[in-house]
């Protein structure tokens, strides 16, 4: 299996995080809220 | 999720483009990438992490939102020569502008909130107040400054998936797509020149 290039992963991650931080929540920015939550809180 | 869809589509088509052109998918070197992480942590503490978002007053949350977007803007400015970044910058500026002029939150009309929530009445939200612990504030159209830049656009109506988004979000989505698509078209020679 081809090794995943860490530079590509970092690049895509940076773009994705930038986009989520820049945009309105209902357009995708709010996904941070829904992914990083803890049960019962 | 137009923003995430743009990232996924740009990455997928960029990878296909690189494969078809027999080129490696070689990303651009972005400067000051840690700023994105700092901005996201600021937002996460204000809007995401349940322990902290519950104790953040609205004012602190709005300051956090504006501050994090300013940090993202500085990061984008440092990287403005990379394809797609001018669209990202323009979209971010438009969102930042409308947020700053409306009390530090993204305005959304009561009508759009009704549509979004699918509620016949305003359950759990009030006009003039922040929408839950999120980034939006419910404001009537006539009280919204630069209303055309607010979360006023809607996805095609269906009961399963409803999203409101702004003009800035559209530009950010196109910018992200263009950026990730461009990576697939880079030649080895151009990549080496940059490094």
TrEMBL record, chain B:
- Keyword Amino-acid biosynthesis listed: no
Transmembrane segments annotated in the record for this chain: 28-48, 60-78, 84-105, 160-181
Q: Which UniProt keywords apply?
A: Membrane, Transmembrane, Transmembrane helix
One Pfam entry for this protein is DUF5317
Highest taxon of source: Bacteria
**Matches recorded under InterPro entries:** DUF5317 (IPR035168)
The question of whether Ligase is a record keyword is answered with no
What is the designated name of this protein? Answer: DUF5317 domain-containing protein
Q: What is the lineage of its organism?
A: Bacteria, Bacillati, Chloroflexota, Anaerolineae, Anaerolineales
């Amino acid at each position: 299996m081809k090794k995943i290039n860490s530079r590509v992963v970092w690049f895509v991650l940076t773009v994705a995080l930038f986009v989520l931080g820049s945009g309105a929540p209902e357009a995708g920015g709010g996904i941070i809220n829904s992914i990083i939550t803890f049960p019962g809180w | 999720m137009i923003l995430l869809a743009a990232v996924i589509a740009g990455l997928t088509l960029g990878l296909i483009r690189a494969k078809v052109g027999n080129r490696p998918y070689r990303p651009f070197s972005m400067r000051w990438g840690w700023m994105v992480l700092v901005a996201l942590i600021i937002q996460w503490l204000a809007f995401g992490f349940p322990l902290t978002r519950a104790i953040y007053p609205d004012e602190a949350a709005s300051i956090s939102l504006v501050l994090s977007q300013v940090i993202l803007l500085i990061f984008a400015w440092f990287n403005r020569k990379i394809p797609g970044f001018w669209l990202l910058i323009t979209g971010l500026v438009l969102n930042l502008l409308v947020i700053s002029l409306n009390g530090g939150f993204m305005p959304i009309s009561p009508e759009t909130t009704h549509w979004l929530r699918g509620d016949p009445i305003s359950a759990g939200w009030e006009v003039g107040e922040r929408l839950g612990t999120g980034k939006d504030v419910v404001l009537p159209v006539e009280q919204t400054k630069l209303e055309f830049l607010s979360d006023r656009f809607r996805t095609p109506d269906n009961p399963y998936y409803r999203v409101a988004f702004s003009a800035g979000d559209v530009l950010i989505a196109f910018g992200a797509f263009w950026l990730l698509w461009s990576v697939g078209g880079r030649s080895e020679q151009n990549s080496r020149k940059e490094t």
